[in-house]
Each structure stands twice: as structure tokens, then as C-alpha cells.
Amino acid sequence: MSDNSGEYVIVVGCGRVGAELATTLSAEGQSVVVIDREMDAFERLGEAFTGATIFGNAMDEEVLVSAGINHADAVVTATQGDNTNIMIGQMAKTLFGVKRVVVRCYDPVRSDTYAALGLKTVCPTRIGAQIMRDSLLESADKCS
What we know:
Strand content: 15-25%
Number of domains: 1
């Protein structure tokens, strides 16, 4: 997204990944709004974050509207729950017509299913396993 300066991005979930993503996008000049159900979660953003925060449940359409979903260029869901991420992703795409929606989905089977239905999914389980496999093979190569 670095080629698209000034985009409006909504990040749902302010855990470690959501906070890191929001802070990075903010530093790159994107307009970022972060939604989370836990007020304390926003402390992860730190002082460098220049975006906005909304305390609430993003499964509530009113919360998404207050976050500006009607003019969002992208929505990323990064909560701890696959069902929550997928539901919010579907809402963003189908109800609000957001063109770019990325959802985190830990379950590889679900991730594949929802990707087949048109949702861009990121599966940390699969990515982590691949990185560990590659590191393991790299270590074995250095030992031979």
C-alpha cells in the first residue's frame, strides 16, 4: 500500500499485529482508524501513531459507519477470532463495498474456504509453519 499515499484504512483489532500494522501504515502517511473492544488495547499504538481509535464492537454496523467505512479504501481484520474476522470482512466487502479487505484466519481450512469465496485471507498458522520449516531446512544445510 506504500504506492497509495493518503489512503483511508480501518484496522479491526488492536492486538500486537493490529497495533503494529496500524502504526506502520500511519508512519507511511495513511489515514488509519483502529477499532477494538478493549480500551486498554489502544496503549499498544504508542505516541508515534497519528490515526484515530474507536472503542466498540466492529460487528456492529454503527461502529463501522462511525469509523468511516463508507469511504474506506481498505479494511483489515486482525482480532483473535476467525469467525469475527471473517464476519467483519464479509460485512466490509458485501454491505459496504470496500474494495480491499484482508482478514486474518488462523485455521488453514477456513482460510482456504473463505479465500475461495473471494475474501483475501492471511493465515499466520500456515505462514509460521512455512517459516519454521524453511529455518529448519536452512539449519540442516549449514550442518552438512
